[in-house]
Amino acid sequence: MREPTAVQQTRRDVGPITDRGAARRRQLLDAARRVFERQGFTDARVADIVKEAHASHGTFYTYFDTKEAIFVEVARTVIEDMHEDMAVAVPTSGLDLRVHDAIDRFIHAYRPNAAIIALMEQLALDSVEMRALRLDLRDSFVQRTRRGIERMQADGSVPADLDVEYTAEALGAMLEYTCHLWFSLGKEFEERRLADALAGIWFATLHPEGHGAP
Questions:
Q1: Most CB within 10 Å of its CB: which of 4, 133, 144, 206?
Q2: What is this structure's pTM?
Q3: Average pLDDT across the chain, whole number
Q4: Where are the domains of the chain?
């Protein structure tokens, strides 16, 4: 691996210092994402990325030192995008509406990012950094679910003795793996029927028979 110049190292450490530099970096990230989604991580090369971005190798190495480094940035962008997609207003009343909203928002956020998430999971087996990023993405959703359940416990919608932490973990795992089967492995589902089935399982878990009406 070539040693970066002082200017290159500075740009890698602190980021672009001009609008033009920021645009070039963004162009490389967008191109890298398309290449990774099309070719996977192993078969993708820096040469493929610079060709896709209509950039030079020198431009690439101004901002990134390896293929792995730019994939990490692509993964971070996916996490930010998913956080933004899920950070919308949540219905304030009606357990059924809250559950359906949470599932629909997760599916909407997962779908366009499924290919990169699948690559993150593959790389997480051998990369401590990628494992941390993948778990961070998962934890953000689990913690959001946990906070939602805690709010519903507070207003009496959910039993007070429910194990919130592990319920959020289990419901999150079910939803994540279903989306993995659907968007990454190609299992065919009818979207509304599937979302309704998932919501039914969530509702039955959070509102067991005999618990007071929300």
A1: 206
A2: 0.83
A3: 88
A4: 6-65, 71-206
Q: Is 154 exposed, middle or buried (0-12, 13-18, 19+ CB in 10 A)?
A: exposed
89 pLDDT tier (thresholds 50, 70, 90): low
CATH of domain 71-206: 1.10.357.10
Dihedral angle sign, alpha carbons of residues 121, 123, 127, 132: negative
pLDDT in tens, 120-142: 999 999 999 999 999 998 998 89
- Return the CATH fold of 6-65: Arc Repressor Mutant, subunit A (1.10.10)
Q: Which residue has the tokens 């909407």?
A: 108
Instruction: Look at phi and psi of residue 54 and say left if phi exceeds 0, alpha if psi is from -120 to 50, else beta.
Output: left
- DSSP assignment letter at 155: T
What's the pLDDT score for residue 207?
84
Name the residue with higher pLDDT: 10 or 107: 107
